[in-house]
Amino acid sequence: MLKTLMGEIKEFKKPSILAPCIVAIEVFMEILIPFLMSKIVDTGVNGAEGGDLKRVASIGVVMIIAAFISLSAGAGAGHFAAIASSGFAKNLRAAMFRNIQKFSFSNLDKYSTSGLITRLTTDVTNVQNAYMMIIRMCVRSPLLLICAFAMTCVIKPSLALVYVGAIIFLGIVLFFIMSHAHKAFKAVFEKYDDLNASVQENISGIRTVKAYVREDHEVRKFNIAAENVYNMFLKAEYLVVANMPVMQFTVYTCILLISWIGAHMIVSDTLTTGQLMSLFTYTMNILMSLMIISMAFVMISMSRASGERIAEVINEKTDLAAPVDSITDIKNGAIEFKNVSFAYKKDGNKCLENINLKINSGETIGIIGGTGSSKSTLVQLIPRLYDATEGEVLVGGLNVKNYELNALRSSVAMVLQKNVLFSGTVKDNLRWGNKDATDEQLIKACKYAQADEFVSAMPDGYDTWIEQGGVNVSGGQKQRLCIARALLMNPKILILDDSTSAVDTKTDAMIRKAFREEIPDTTKLIIAQRITSVQDADRIIVLDNGEVNGFGTHEELLANNEIYKEVWESQQKGALE
Length: 577
What we know:
The chain is an alpha/beta fold. Helices cover 64% and strands 11% of the residues. The chain has helices at residues 2-6, 13-45, 53-102, 105-109, 113-155, 157-204, 206-211, 215-241, 243-267, 273-315, 375-380, 405-411, 426-430, 439-448, 452-456, 475-487, 505-518, 554-560, 562-576; strands at residues 335-343, 350-359, 364-369, 390-395, 398-399, 412-415, 424-425, 465-466, 493-497, 523-527, 539-544, 547-552. The strands form 3 sheets. A 6-stranded mixed β-sheet has the order 6-9-10-3-11-12. A 4-stranded antiparallel β-sheet has the order 2-1-4-5, with no helix packed on it. A two-stranded antiparallel ribbon has the order 7-8. Helix 9 (243-267) runs antiparallel to helix 10 and helix 14 (439-448) packs across helix 16 (475-487). The chain is elongated, with a radius of gyration of 35 Å.
């Protein structure tokens, strides 16, 4: 974990080094001030013949200079620590986000969306705060403790034993708190994932919540998640709060012992008044350092759980590795499945088994099957959104694993079952398919997808703003824009995963007609629930429980495939009624 996190300091190494170096200057000046004060008291105020005012003045000037240097160094250290910690947090977020972009679908299945958001926000903030504490306070406090302890040994070694006992006692208490607090805070952040999931789900589906009048239910669900976080935090804080009373007990005990022993030493002339004053200051330095160290340990314990979660995402390796000499040229849109089986890693159960299919380049292939028959899973193996568990998937005559991933996916345009539009103009969304597309190309693609008519009727046409998630367009309009976006990729293979379900049959037919006439060389795979959407395809695949139950033309399947015939008759009957 540490190696992974430290690897993201990168360009912020300089401020990360400068901060503790300047802190050292601050500490040395701060330690010097009590020593100078004792000199003023002993040789200036309590000296022979009523004191030496010139000596007091000269030492006082030195004290003022030391205080100014200490103040300036403290401000400088804070400045560099802020730069280093903020930059470190920026790099951690960037590293996680970059790696997430490389994840395959199976990698994404390991993490919830809310969990990833928590890691990118709350967990990074915890590590950022801990890093600032480490490069500043975790340098200042131990250094101040060591220097102050060294000064007490110089002034009166016997009194230094009081601090040794305090340090040992607090060390034992801190070890106990840290060992138990880490487990508690780790559990807290897991509950945070549930809380974020509740918020995200509610906000993204707020229209559905209101439509079904489920606001009270969602509030109760959120309150339960918030209560769980509260209870876990309370459990963790019970351990942490024990740190403060133990620290205060130790501080007051040390002050009382120093006062009592020091008073006896002054009476016996083995300790001066100035030395006792400086000892009190060093006592506070030592004990405050111990207090800050204990707080730092608690924060580090809390951030350790966050650091482990961050490192897990950064170190996650995509399971879609490409060969060293990967191929970037896809010859054509021919597709072949050879003895392909697939199982999701989460459950291990095969959802596709022994699939053997051969599709010619330029063919239009329909795919139908009941819910859960793995239609989407089948087509997701083509652009390597998942890798086949067994067997081979070939595109253009070569195994998809031999292709460079970006080259493969640039040649396989896929309109997913869940259509997603992003905030921006219509043009911005369309240019996801081709960032360099001209206005003419955008209009042409929209005409093929039967989207040009409604886009042109919008207030600002192709410059109309699309809200996040495409909430200001209908489901059918969203589907057509996504199809146009895919067409702009000029793909060798076009996959429509139930992507015309929200459009009327006339528009659906016009889209299929445009495909036949305008992109005849593109291999088209169309998943549909309505047989009318695929009946004019060159061939149709019938899937049943992850197996190919039939593969042929509409007429052949009506004659030879019971499942296809049954679906056709039920849909025809429904249409007549």
